[in-house]
Write a structure and sequence with these properties.
Layout (H helix, E strand, L loop, with lengths): L7 H22 L5 H26 L9 H8 L6 H10 L10 H7 L4 H22 L1 H6 L6 H6 L14
Helix pairs in contact: 1-2, 1-6, 2-3, 2-4, 2-6, 3-4
Length: 169
């Protein structure tokens, strides 16, 4: 079974692009108020990472990326929301001759990246998603104080919410 990516940078960039692409599309489908900002932040990054990974793989195959049509086609296909990553991976897979369609999907499953890079990327995506939802959620804008610090919460013992509502009144 042949691999899609032969270089370390290409493997890491393509896996990071897949993760960011999936996170952006799934984050945009959530009905949270910050989903559109999260999508607008992460989705262009995933397209750029796909283009960089495609460039590295085409260059390692012995072609000039900017003179052929494959890099431009992969850069355009990376923008497509759901099928874009499969088109990009398919274009990279068929760079070298003698590959058939039956080997594409096992090669996609064999695509591996550095685990530390994947962990750090997932952590950063989670933190960005949490920060975006806290900043744009109307509930937190209405009920949270203007500034929350260690001193105001633990040292002075001030209440964070000025109005308490009981369900039994």
């Amino acid at each position: 079974m042949r691999e899609i990516a032969g270089t370390v940078f290409g493997r890491n960039a393509l896996v990071a692009g897949l993760i960011c692409h999936f996170a952006a599309v799934s984050g945009a489908m959530i009905s949270a108020s910050g989903g559109d900002f999260f999508f607008k932040t992460i989705y262009p990054f995933s397209c750029l990472v796909f283009a960089a990974g495609t460039y590295a793989e085409i260059k390692s195959a012995g072609s000039a990326p900017f003179t052929g049509w494959r890099w431009y086609a992969a850069a355009v296909a990376a923008v497509l929301p759901v099928i874009g990553p499969l088109i990009v991976l398919g274009l990279i897979y068929y760079i070298r001759p003698g590959r058939s369609l039956s080997g594409l999907f096992p090669a996609v499953l064999k695509l591996r990246a550095n685990l530390l890079l994947v962990f750090i990327l997932l952590l950063l995506l989670f933190l960005l998603f949490a920060w975006v939802n806290i900043k744009h959620d109307p509930y937190f804008k209405r009920h949270a104080p203007k500034t929350i610090s260690f001193f105001t919460v633990f040292v002075t013992g001030q209440k964070l919410y000025s109005k308490e509502v009981s369900c039994f009144q």
